[in-house]
Amino acid sequence: MPWKAVIGGSIGNMVEWYDWFVYSSFAIYFAGSFFPEGDDTAKLLNTAAIFAVGFFMRPLGGWLLGRYADRKGRKSALTLTVTLMSASALLIAVAPTYDSVGYIGAVVLVVARLLQGLSVGGEYAASATYLTEATPRGRRGFASSFQYVSMTAGQLVGLLLQIILQNTMSQEALDSYGWRVPFVVGAVAAAVVFYLRRSLLETEAYDEEEREVTPHDRGTIKELLAHKKEALLVIALTMGGTVAYYTYTTYLTKYLSNSAGLAKETATLVSFCALFVFMCLQPLAGRLSDRIGRRPLLITFGIGSMVGTVPLMTALGGVQGFAGALTLALIGLVIVTGYTSINAVVKAELFPTNVRALGVALPYAIANALFGGTAQYVALWFKDSGIESGFFWYVSGCAAVSLVVYLTMRETRDVALSRTEQASAEVPARV
């Protein structure tokens, strides 16, 4: 295993997603600073709407930075994305409140989320293609699973910091200024990762492509349209997975505190413990996919999410304590692992090198904007309308659509990603 490449790509991804998720996990504290009117659900709806705005920037980021990664290299794109993320975290950290400048603070939040969306739209593809291309065939599922290990680690760091602040600061202090601390931490950490990523080596597949294909043939919409079927496949297979993922991760803490009635501290601890186990499962599932293929895991997720979401979320809504909430959350995250552990490698294996980053970035970002970014808002809208269970059926329906794709798509495990890899064995090529 090329551990330097795996660690280098992952640690930057961790900071990217720490900054991305910390907005959601601390929203329960800063919502009142920017939206003082209305009840708690209304305030959370406003912050969730701004959270969704970042997702709608992701297609633009996927296009611009995916194109950049295909033309300038995976390493250059990884460095650029973490720079943008550092700037956006710093903006949130210094955003003025409603009491001082009215809704200008909310405008600053929107600008910061737009920058985050631009960055993450490119980060996912740059990280997915880098981890996949930097690893030998037969280990790609295992290596690429560290993308969600690092994503989850970033969220865990955010939750751990939240737990520490909850136990060292009063509620009034957290609501007043304590919520700014994680954004300062994120900005500083991203600046450190910028220097770490500069020492990464470019992948063999990209170097090979750069020598043989002229720049104007790499990372273009024209080249992507030559692979329309694969692009549509990425959107469809992402649909159910992204909705389920955000339901059991970023929305879980709000659901447990706002609907189940658990204390915020208990809900945060449940999320932290469940996500830690979830993080540890990713490499195991990724390694399993290297042995049995990608499709079996995706199909297992599709069936489990379609059938299990309604009873699981219903039970979570009536849970009484920590143990019961943790058990149910773990069941949901085990199901989601069938998607998260391998979705990056599956998408990267669908496209040739000259359009791989763009092919992963743009369709994935579109699917996330439509389904992942709106998951929290849709959930809160159903709750505010008095039909909260409607959201559970929505998640199940999205999973059902993706399941059809999983059942009909081809297996990608043995595809060669470079000419050198193709020459070493007689396997299908995606070069």
Automatic annotation (TrEMBL):
Membrane topology: Multi-pass membrane protein
A Pfam family per the record: MFS_1
Upper taxonomic lineage: Bacteria, Bacillati, Actinomycetota, Actinomycetes, Streptosporangiales
GO CC, alphabetical: plasma membrane
Family according to the record: Belongs to the major facilitator superfamily. Metabolite:H+ Symporter (MHS) family (TC 2.A.1.6) family.
Domain spans labelled Major facilitator superfamily (MFS) profile: 5-414
MF (Gene Ontology): symporter activity
Localization of this protein: Cell membrane
Main location as per UniProt: membrane
Function summary: May be a proton symporter involved in the uptake of osmolytes such as proline and glycine betaine.
Name listed for the protein in its UniProt record: Putative proline/betaine transporter
Keywords assigned: Cell membrane, Membrane, Symport, Transmembrane, Transmembrane helix, Transport
